[in-house]
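Incident log, structure service

09:12 report received: a user says their structure output differs between two submissions of the same chain.
09:20 pulled the input from the user's history:
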Amino acid sequence: MLFDSVVDAIGHTPLVRLRLDSPAGVEVFAKLECQNLYGMKDRVARTIILTAKRTGALPDGAAIVESSSGTMALGVALVGRALGHPVHIVTDPRIDDITLAKLRSLGCEVHIVEAMTGTGWQGARLELLARLRAELPGAFWPDQYGNPDNPAGYRALAAELLDDLGGFDVLVGSVGSGGSLCGTARQLRTTLPELRVVGVDSVGSVLFGQPDRPGRKQSGLGNSLLPGNLDRRLIDEVHWLNDLEAFTATRELARDQQIFAGNTSGSVYQLLRHLAARAAPGTRIVGILPDRGDRYTRTIYDDDYWTEHQVDRQVPATAPVTITPGQVAEHWSRTEEIERSTDRQRLLFVESNTTGTGMLALRLTRDLGLTPVLLTNSPERYPDVAGTGCEVVTCDTNSAAALRETVRAAWRREEIAGVATTSDFYLPAVAGLTTLLGLPGNSVESMTACRDKAVTRARLAQAGVRQPRFAVLADPTDVPEAVARIGLPCVVKPADDSGSNNVLLCSTAEQAVAQSRVILAETVNVRGQATAGTVLVEEYLDGPEFSVETFSRAGEVHCVGITQKHLAGPPHFVEHGHVFPAAVPPHVADDLAGAARRAVRAVGLTSGAAHTEVRLTPEGAAVIEVNGRLAGGMIPELVRLSTGINLLEEQVRAALGRPPRLDRVPARAAAIRFLLAEREGTFSHVSGTEAARALEGVRHVTVTARPEQRVEPAKNAYHRLGYVIAEGETPDAAAELCAKAHDELTIVLRERNP
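09:34 re-ran on a clean worker, output below:
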């Protein structure tokens, strides 16, 4: 196999069948990660450093500083030096001569701490690392213990196992930073949900509730600190080995299997033998062997070392003893009673709607037993957030790097249950975080395709989905030619805004040019994000408008129902009301739902809610937009009143990886009418609210406008001032009652003072 560089050669390691004494039909395989150039953590170093270069966290030529005494140091040296960076390694006196020689020969500067701190050698190394970072401006710290690119680096390992085996039943791995076993297991479980994961730790390590013993001799596994990348929720069973047991198993791995490896590999081998001997016929077991043995010739493979450090005086066990929380492991022990931090689970929301479902989602998260966290760059945007009981964390939500760093620094991976948003503007940001953390969600590509309607149009065209004729333009001077080709009237709109903002029906080419100039003049949106800088000129499709509410899981698209939408009238496209379910014949419903399903698949949505806007033309359903989120305009509340399905709760459940519950059908109907100002003025209040609420069947009368707010006739969804929701036995009955309640209301304006 030919590679262009040593960095490209990382991975592609052999998978070998081990010869073990086990029942017939049991297969045991070893993934020889020790056959990477320096070891398993070559994968981590490559992923972390390449990501840092791509995101700008590591500028060309900047220094890389990492704390490690083993294979992570070598991996960082390999990748960092190959890519032209100075590399500084902070380590401690336990580093072996071979690793030290390799690091120095690769051109690294090695810094060795002199003494432990209260948190062991690791604490001392991190203190020195902090001083070096202060002395080297712009230096990049890979931070293998907290950087989520550590576990992400093992997705390729999981893919290699699936390619080689197709499927298996048990995965065994050592636990140190938490990256290798957790990253591999998390990825594998997307394909093998019943996979059993067994971890091996060292006696004297704190990772699974044991007291710290800094004098342990094993390296590469165990820890004196609880690393951010450890996710104990993924591990079904853990074993502890003392130094003698681990070293003995390592020597036996070399003797019995001809694999000359380090103690992490030997510890995994000990568990593989144990599990294989007790496995049912047909069981397939895989163990990850991380490191080779050349670093340990003067320790694990040296009898004098055993004597000098009293390794041979430790007491071994021939089988694991099952212990319970609070018991201390002195030799080979095991437990399935693992602290999994379920009482500290957080669902992170990257920004939110300011009205409607946004604050409801935060309250609902707490009702589900989780802690909601709102990540926002402007807490004052959410005056009602205090009543939700959520944590508020201020950070730059418009920066992927800042979001990533905030999440990494604030919580360990096992404390994060999911990431979501109720704001259309932050769908790609959420997808970036869920992809990084291995959480349920859609891809960045699919969310970008939904946010940028120009990309949506291209995807729909490629999939053959009926849609308006269109042109994507970045220069107003190109608009007349596009209008001539598409025809008048036409719709001119920004490619990536929301709430029908700046969407205009144009009757002349001059009007289309003028509107395109208005759109292109806005270089940032209402959330301070850079706009796409493009305009869509689209064919105007005359016909009733609907939205199809769908929910996807594992690529299967379920149609929840169809909403009839009512627009306030041209030239703007403000929705003044909705009715759910739409009163349409079955064949029309099938056409609308089919168009939505094809559109959802075309943009690549595989998880959670989608809101697809469709026009019904004489030729059939044509897709206007695909939104990778719940519908706005309180449509989820209409669905809940009509069917009992709480779409908001299902979307929260989807962010947590839980299956949706969508097996109910509409038994009633619900309708909404929005409050819209007929003229400009300063909002005072809405009269008639009590009379509207008194009507039987009216469920909500809500005023969202605030006193002294400047209002105007609606040009987009942001100009709505409130709403009325009513339910009835049929769509017509619900719409009639809603209109009656709406007629009770009067928007009272205070004229501007002269």
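09:41 both user submissions now match this output. Likely a transient worker issue. Closing.
09:42 reviewer note: The chain has a mean pLDDT of 94. The first helix runs from residue 42 to 55.
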